[in-house]
């Protein structure tokens, strides 16, 4: 599914960003894996570039301050009509706001928050930068899923803040919910019980579309990343979980046409 950049309904995932220690090496990795090119973005939080696929913006990569020992992880940004109001709602509903709200130049206004179980996500109030200009084509984001111990309590948080409705996902994973806006699934929550990694806790997983999962997994390994979970058949296509050289995990999926 391709789409021109447009102002998203509040609560819709609209961007993904990764903060790393070595920006040059990270750009080399993703450039070789997905064919991304890069151009400078807002520098309010330090050096930052936007990744482009065929000239369309698909993701951001920023430099972590040397003194910050934060987990290296892809972070989804959810669209907000008013970041300040949404950030207050996050706090009121039991979440935490760790960064912002602050202006990202003329691009928009942002905050970085975490839900009551510790999963980190961003908030984005678009100005000149509307977010991902293309999705669902190889090298771009196709889905975002919250991986947590159990869905019930944390899903209530996202419902309260963003107005999602829930829809049970019929799959082999019994504790699996879709988060919907206007009856359209925009993200999902999967409860994995004791299979939740102790070293990571609850986290958002970004899925990138690829033409051939097995080939992409081999390329990840050749480029200095590693395979977390080998290719397998999932409910929407063939999928694998991998990590880049700094340890940021993400999923590769070759989506099936439903």
UniProtKB/TrEMBL annotation:
PANTHER family: CONSERVED PROTEIN (PTHR33993:SF10), GLYOXALASE-RELATED (PTHR33993). InterPro entries: Anthracycline_SecMetBiosynth, Glyas_Bleomycin-R_OHBP_Dase, Glyoxalase_6, Glyoxy/Ble-like_N, VOC_core. Residues 12-126, 140-255 form the VOC domain. CDD domains: SgaA_N_like. It comes from Streptomyces tabacisoli. This is VOC family protein.
């Amino acid at each position: 599914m391709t789409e021109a950049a447009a102002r998203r309904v509040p609560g819709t995932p609209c961007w993904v960003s990764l903060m790393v220690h070595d920006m040059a090496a990270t750009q080399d990795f993703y450039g070789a894996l997905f064919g991304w090119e890069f151009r400078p973005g807002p520098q309010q939080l330090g050096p930052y570039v936007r990744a482009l696929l065929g000239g369309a913006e698909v993701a951001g990569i920023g430099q972590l301050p040397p003194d910050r020992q934060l987990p290296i992880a892809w972070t989804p940004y959810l669209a907000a009509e008013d970041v300040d109001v949404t950030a207050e709602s996050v706090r009121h509903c039991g979440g935490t706001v760790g960064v912002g709200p602050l202006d990202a130049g003329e691009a928009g206004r942002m905050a970085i928050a975490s839900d009551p179980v510790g999963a980190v996500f961003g908030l984005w109030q678009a100005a000149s930068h509307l977010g991902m200009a293309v999705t669902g084509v190889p090298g771009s984001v196709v889905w975002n899923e919250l991986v947590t111990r159990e869905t019930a309590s944390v899903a209530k948080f996202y419902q309260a803040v963003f107005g999602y409705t829930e829809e049970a996902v019929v799959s082999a994973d019994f504790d699996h919910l879709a988060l919907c806006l206007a009856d359209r699934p925009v993200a999902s929550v999967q409860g994995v019980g004791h299979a939740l990694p102790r070293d990571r806790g609850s986290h958002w997983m970004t899925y990138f579309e690829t033409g051939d999962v097995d080939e992409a997994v081999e390329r990840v390994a050749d480029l200095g990343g590693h395979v977390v979970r080998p290719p397998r058949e999932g409910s929407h296509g063939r999928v694998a979980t991998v990590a880049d050289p700094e340890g940021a995990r993400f999923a590769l999926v070759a989506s099936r046409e439903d």
